[in-house]
User: What shape does this take?
Amino acid sequence: MSSPSPAPTPLSYRAPLGDYLRLAEHTLAALHAGDEATAWRFKWMHPRFRGVEIAEVRAATLGLDDAKLLVAREYCLEDWHHLARFASDAAGDGRVARFEAAADAVIDGNGAALERMLRDDPSLPRARSARIHHATLLHYVAANGVEGYRQRTPANAVEIARLLLDAGADPDALADMYDERCTTLGMLVSSTPPHDAGVQVPLAELLVERGATPDVPGSKWNAALRCALAFGFLDTARALAARVGQPSDIGTAAGLGELGETARFLPTADDASRQTALALACMHGHARVARLLLATGGDPDRYNPEGLHAHSTPLHQAVWANHLDVVRLLVEHGARLDLRDRIYDGTPLDWAVHGARNEIADYLRDRSGTAAPATT
Assistant: This one.
């Protein structure tokens, strides 16, 4: 198998259709050459391979039309026909081009340019993208659910968000992302770039201050506190909890590490809720909470509930989050070491080796009697 090819440079919204075609041809050639990264692009973005193993991509006979569809989806367009229309519209100076230029200003943190654009076109704060997600400009601040190459966060993201909100952006506007209708807040608290840039918490606080609803009905992504916990952002979850009050369920209490509140909910919590609580407690390293849940019937070998990395077990997630004390606790309560996740086919030890969780890897090898390093 060949080594992975360099990721193609993202095309500007001004790119002509021929550039997209050349990208599709390059993508197909890389796939046929056995490039692993390209195979995973098909697995995640081509509708034919949703919910299937990567082996099915490798075994499939794919042609240029498949590569064109992949490219369209990667640029958040329904298919090649819609991509062609988008390329034509974006080449001019109309609504599509104005929105795209403003989106670039948002992700680049170019406040001066954005302020000028908002002044010249007062409709922009509530305008919608022509792409499949129909996002507003404010959604781009979340760096999630939009084009992959635009999922980045400038250092001045809070100022950019404030500029959009001052100009009339709707903090609760919904966009079509991940098969749901999603708010900016819901996307923000499940997004790595704002967290890594150190602005996830102040952005979340700003959105709530400006009227964003922490729990919008109808979408699992819009329960912001639970969503922050599900994606591992404990500091953000705690900041939101400080604004919305006490946890309303056992899962949230366990994820926040609140032992007393978790115990309070236990008598009335059903089995599924208790398993959710165990998954969140293990993910966030709350050993005392996890111990309580295991002692009252929590199953360390059950795959996590939907929406909580359901391809993995509590042990996988404790390993990945580098919580050795929770790993020990789960193993002491009989957690199986041979269970494999349902996407990457890795055991907890495989995950530890892949993530360089060296102390955990040594512990798991010792418990399983594995002398040699595991492979991923």
